[in-house]
Amino acid sequence: MKPSSNQDLRELFNKAEPPHADLSGPVMKKLQAEQHQMKSFDRPYLKYKVSVIIMVCMLLSISTGFAAVHLYSLTNNKGKTVYEEKIFEPSILQKKDPQEELRDREATKLSYKLLKPGESAALYIAANNPHQMLNLVTGPGLGFKDAHALTEELKNQEIKLTNSIRTSRQVYSFDRANLSYHTPKPLTAEDETSLTEELKRQATESDVGYAMAPLETLKDNWNMYISYKSSDGQIVIQPWKRKEKLTIHFNENHVDAKEEMKISGVDVLYKEANKRSSNRSIQFIYNIPNSDYHINYYIEATRKITKAELIEIAKSFLE
User: Fold this and answer.
1) Rounded to the nearest 5 degrees, what angle is found at the Cα of 319, between the Cα atoms of 165 and 85?
2) Exposure winner among 56, 122, 150, 153, fewest CB in 10 A?
């Protein structure tokens, strides 16, 4: 049976600022959500779910089949659309089983309570679990105050990380970063069956009503928040490494006009500062050589940082 994906977008309305962020624009918000990827096997009641915390710039859904008004898009070097913006429509809010929703929320809470940054685990929660499902979860993001440590964590990942960003006008120094991994190592059907039974037994016998087993965290799917500062302003870079298409749904009252341009032969989306947001932003796709992965870069800067500087920064990542 083919895996299907399902996401409850109602959680995305619970917004919070990125950690210690000085940027005031509404685009650079940290949204807490659950990305639920449900895989079903041919055997009854043997399923598992992946729950993660994601950081994105606005309302996000992972490519649904619903029609929506297209705004902007970016393609990879094979001409395939890997990023798209659409108008948010209520029809994408799929109705969920109340028990399933309660269990998924509890799994997310437990992942932040029990796991260290970067860790993954399989959780069996006895309550609200009539179909005996595992929740595969990842823990909090990894925090960095040193660019070298971040570089070591992501070595061989084809991303440019530096202590500073230099433009023709200013030098911006590394401030801090947060890195989130999203994918526990998938279980084989045999392992999933045996682990479900074992964790079910432990959860039933325990006083807390759940049981957990550690899993390996895959490090090919991640997103980051990186801050650079100078006395003149702040630059925030949000790269997201992934294979799949990323679709962002915007409220129709919060849609900004964007300029479509090319930098080093790559399609780029540029947003100018306006009355609603004093920040400028630029977005583009970096294609990782000899890989099915790409990095979706979103860069936002405070008002004093010019359009020309943002273009310089984009060039430095693309060259």
Assistant:
1) 85
2) 153
Q: Is the pTM of this model over 0.85?
A: no
Residue pair 125/210 in contact (Cβ under 8 Å)? The answer is yes
pLDDT at res. 156: 86
In sequence order, which residues have a C-beta less than 8 Å from that of residue 270 and are 6 or more positions away? 258, 259, 260, 261, 280, 281, 282, 283, 307, 310, 311
Distance, in Å, from the CA atom of 284 to the CA atom of 268, rounded to the nearest integer, reads 5
In sequence order, the β-bridge partners of residue 283 are: 269, 298
Cα 38 from chain centroid? 17
3-state secondary structure the chain: CCCEEEECHHHHHCEECCCCCCCCCCCCCEECCCEEEEEECCCCCCEEEEECCCCCCCCEECCCCCCCCEEEEEECCCCCEEEEEEECCHHHCCCCCHHHHHHHHHHHHHHHHHCCCCCEEEEEECCCCCCCCEEEEECCCEEECCHHHHHHHCCCCCCCCCCEEECCCCEEEEEEEEEEEEEECCCCHHHHHHHHHHHHHHHHHCCCCEEEEEECEEEEEEEEEEEEEECCEEEEEEEEEECCCEEEEECHHHCCCCEEEEECCEEEEEECCCCCCCCEEEEEEEECCCCCCEEEEEEEECCCCCHHHHHHHHHHHHC
Q: In terms of DSSP bridges, do strands 233-242 and 246-250 run parallel, antiparallel, or are they unpaired?
A: unpaired
pLDDT tens digit string along 142-162? 999 999 999 999 998 889 899
Measure the CA angle with vertex 145, ends 53 and 139; round to 5°.
25
pLDDT value of residue 70: 78
